[in-house]
Amino acid sequence: MADPELQLVERRIRSFPDFPTPGVLFRDISPVLKDPASFRAAIGLLARHLKATHGGRIDYIAGLDSRGFLFGPSLAQELGLGCVLIRKRGKLPGPTVWASYALEYGKAELEIQKDALEPGQRVVVVDDLLATGGTMHAACELLGRLQAEVLECVSLVELTSLKGREKLAPVPFFSLLQYE
């Protein structure tokens, strides 16, 4: 029997064909955010996975710009941890480190403040969705430059046909819901 909390979250994911371009089936998480019970369930399920997998070994949650910001702080709060931000380049004050990554239509850049973490601190990266893995891979690269240890990457939704999980290897990856 499937987990009722997971079923609640899954019922809130909407699909929009041909958005943002023809041939793409967009998975919309907005209804999860709109419904307090499903959002609470999503955070609880991710937190339970992280507790079971890593126990008390996690130092911080890293939320990715922009929808990872919706899950990162709540997940960190649930686990009694702090949250650090990994943003699009040019959005953070002070000294930063940055990394470029490829998009299907060009490139993008992410950055993190140089003093966001101390060497050796253990981090879990969170975003709303894993597609090709470019954004999470760049985030892992940035955290590595700060000499942090990335324990795992997690997301609410994974688009398995795009093989983003493979791009993250050897960093473990977990998603609540998987779609082709």
TrEMBL record:
Catalyzed chemical reaction(s): AMP + diphosphate = 5-phospho-alpha-D-ribose 1-diphosphate + adenine
Pathway named in the protein's UniProt entry: Purine metabolism; AMP biosynthesis via salvage pathway; AMP from adenine: step 1/1
One Pfam family, short name: Pribosyltran
Domain Phosphoribosyltransferase: 33-158
Enzyme type, top EC level: transferase
Protein name: Adenine phosphoribosyltransferase
EC number annotated for this UniProt entry: 2.4.2.7
Example GO molecular function: adenine binding
Function: Catalyzes a salvage reaction resulting in the formation of AMP, that is energically less costly than de novo synthesis.
One GO BP: AMP salvage
Gene name linked to the record: APRT
